[in-house]
């Protein structure tokens, strides 16, 4: 098996693969709160507007992706991102998610972001385990916040501090 490569996503090259990985989590699970899987053009738009979007490639196939978007729009939130990660169903448990996240968090820290936030529909042992393993801590639970497949679902929020303490070293860039 070829080595895993992590690189920045290219909206044109990688949108279809990311949409393909994501679609079953939309159609078959409550991991995603979307109801309809995004098209490749929509995914390309998301890749292009993200703060960071990384893909994991093995044997020339994209097997997972992780990304960061702005947490909220108000100016004081500008050092905080929401992050997420999706690994192809056939590639779970092989270290893809953790390598994507390690590199994503490292890039965010180098760009002066100070907090990574993650919202996880409960239950999701794999996601909670991954975030905990990478140093995220529990913030709290939004109860019955999402309605999908005729049921209410809870979202656990976790966060990880990036960089040192004290004032920011510079603006996010
Ligand atoms: C969550 C997800 C990204 C994990 O990716 P992965 O490549 O399978 O995870 P890794 O192999 O890198 O595992 C890293 C760590 O995560 C934790 N973990 C992974 N799978 C786990 C599971 N099924 N149960 C508990 N912990 C798990 C472990 O701590 C693991 O470290 P270890 O192997 O040393 O025990 C993957 O399962 C996935 O794509 N799930 C569906 C989409 C999803 O839930 N995304 C997150 C949205 S919030």
Automatic annotation (TrEMBL):
PROSITE patterns named among the record's database cross-references: GNAT (PS51186)
Signal peptide from the UniProt entry: none
GO molecular function terms attached to this record: acyltransferase activity
Lineage top rank: taxon: Bacteria
Classification via PANTHER family: ACYLTRANSFERASE FABY-RELATED (PTHR43072:SF8), N-ACETYLTRANSFERASE (PTHR43072)
Entry protein name: GNAT family N-acetyltransferase
Ranges of residues in domain N-acetyltransferase: 4-163
EC annotation from Swiss-Prot or TrEMBL: 2.3.-.-
First-tier enzyme category under EC: transferase
Keyword tags: Acyltransferase, Transferase
